[in-house]
Amino acid sequence: MLFWCDRWVSGLALADIAPALTAAIPRRTAKSLTVAEGLNKRRWIRGIVGGLTVTVIAEYLRVWQRLEGLHLRKDVEDRVIWRWSGNG
Q: How far apart are CA 51 and CA 21, in angstroms?
Protein backbone atom coordinates (compact mmCIF):
# COMPACT_ATOMS: atom_id res chain seq x y z
CA MET A 1 0.00 0.00 0.00
CA LEU A 2 1.49 3.34 -1.06
CA PHE A 3 1.84 6.09 1.54
CA TRP A 4 0.87 9.06 -0.66
CA CYS A 5 -1.41 7.52 -3.28
CA ASP A 6 -3.54 4.81 -1.66
CA ARG A 7 -6.63 5.37 0.48
CA TRP A 8 -5.47 4.27 3.91
CA VAL A 9 -6.25 7.30 6.12
CA SER A 10 -9.92 7.00 7.04
CA GLY A 11 -10.65 5.89 3.48
CA LEU A 12 -8.76 8.79 1.90
CA ALA A 13 -5.42 9.14 0.17
CA LEU A 14 -2.95 11.69 1.51
CA ALA A 15 -2.80 13.05 -2.04
CA ASP A 16 -6.48 13.98 -1.61
CA ILE A 17 -6.09 15.29 1.94
CA ALA A 18 -2.96 17.34 1.22
CA PRO A 19 -2.55 17.97 -2.52
CA ALA A 20 -0.05 20.83 -2.19
CA LEU A 21 2.12 18.80 0.19
CA THR A 22 1.95 15.80 -2.12
CA ALA A 23 3.07 18.03 -5.00
CA ALA A 24 6.23 18.74 -2.96
CA ILE A 25 7.08 15.02 -3.03
CA PRO A 26 9.06 13.70 -6.01
CA ARG A 27 6.81 11.51 -8.19
CA ARG A 28 9.19 8.57 -7.85
CA THR A 29 8.95 8.74 -4.06
CA ALA A 30 5.16 9.12 -4.12
CA LYS A 31 4.87 6.05 -6.35
CA SER A 32 7.20 3.86 -4.27
CA LEU A 33 7.03 4.75 -0.55
CA THR A 34 4.86 2.25 1.32
CA VAL A 35 2.79 3.05 4.39
CA ALA A 36 5.08 0.91 6.56
CA GLU A 37 8.19 2.66 5.22
CA GLY A 38 6.67 6.12 5.56
CA LEU A 39 5.57 5.63 9.15
CA ASN A 40 8.89 4.07 10.21
CA LYS A 41 10.75 6.87 12.01
CA ARG A 42 8.54 9.39 10.15
CA ARG A 43 10.40 8.75 6.91
CA TRP A 44 7.55 10.39 4.97
CA ILE A 45 8.90 13.79 6.07
CA ARG A 46 12.26 13.25 4.33
CA GLY A 47 10.55 13.14 0.95
CA ILE A 48 9.38 16.76 1.10
CA VAL A 49 11.67 18.61 -1.31
CA GLY A 50 9.50 21.16 -3.08
CA GLY A 51 8.95 24.78 -2.12
CA LEU A 52 7.54 25.30 1.36
CA THR A 53 4.61 27.63 0.79
CA VAL A 54 2.16 28.52 3.54
CA THR A 55 -0.28 25.99 2.05
CA VAL A 56 2.33 23.21 2.03
CA ILE A 57 3.25 23.93 5.66
CA ALA A 58 -0.42 24.02 6.73
CA GLU A 59 -1.07 20.69 4.99
CA TYR A 60 2.11 19.23 6.52
CA LEU A 61 0.86 20.13 10.00
CA ARG A 62 -2.58 18.65 9.23
CA VAL A 63 -1.02 15.39 8.02
CA TRP A 64 1.36 15.27 10.99
CA GLN A 65 -1.60 15.66 13.35
CA ARG A 66 -3.59 12.90 11.62
CA LEU A 67 -0.66 10.48 11.67
CA GLU A 68 0.65 11.24 15.16
CA GLY A 69 0.00 8.28 17.41
CA LEU A 70 -0.79 6.00 14.47
CA HIS A 71 1.12 2.74 14.69
CA LEU A 72 1.09 -0.29 12.46
CA ARG A 73 0.43 -3.59 14.18
CA LYS A 74 2.55 -6.48 12.97
CA ASP A 75 0.18 -8.99 14.57
CA VAL A 76 -2.78 -7.83 12.44
CA GLU A 77 -2.96 -8.93 8.83
CA ASP A 78 -3.42 -6.27 6.15
CA ARG A 79 -6.78 -6.12 4.42
CA VAL A 80 -7.99 -4.46 1.28
CA ILE A 81 -11.55 -3.16 1.04
CA TRP A 82 -12.96 -2.71 -2.45
CA ARG A 83 -15.58 -0.04 -2.95
CA TRP A 84 -18.36 -0.57 -5.46
CA SER A 85 -18.30 1.79 -8.40
CA GLY A 86 -20.84 2.58 -11.09
CA ASN A 87 -18.41 1.85 -13.91
CA GLY A 88 -17.43 -1.63 -12.76
A: 9
> Could you state, in order of their start, the residue ranges of all structural domains in the chain?
7-67
58 three-class SS: helix
Task: Supply the pTM of this predicted model.
Answer: 0.80
Q: What is the pLDDT of residues 31-46, one digit of tens each?
A: 999 999 999 989 999 9
What lies within 8 Å, CB to CB, of 26 at 6+ separation is 47, 49
For 9-31, write each residue's pLDDT tens digit.
988 999 999 999 999 999 999 99
CA distance 8 to 6: 6
